[in-house]
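In this section we walk through a basic example: taking a raw amino acid sequence and producing a predicted 3D structure, encoded as discrete structure tokens. The instruction is simple. Fold the sequence below.
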Amino acid sequence: MTLFRERPQSIWVLPLLALGPALGLLATDWSGWASGMRGWLFDSYQRAHPRPLQDTRAEA
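The resulting token sequence is shown next.
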């Protein structure tokens, strides 16, 4: 654990500056970016492995 203590604090500034806004963007879903990415991922999965069409009516 001494590896982290030997490094200067300034080395953590850039990762924290990138991580903070990224988490804030995902948490607030500003301008629908996270929802759009979620929809894009779902659509790409459906195109790669489409589910076969089946009749879902219950037969009694």
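Looking at the output, two observations stand out. The chain has a mean pLDDT of 82. The radius of gyration is 22 Å. In the next section we compare this with other chains.
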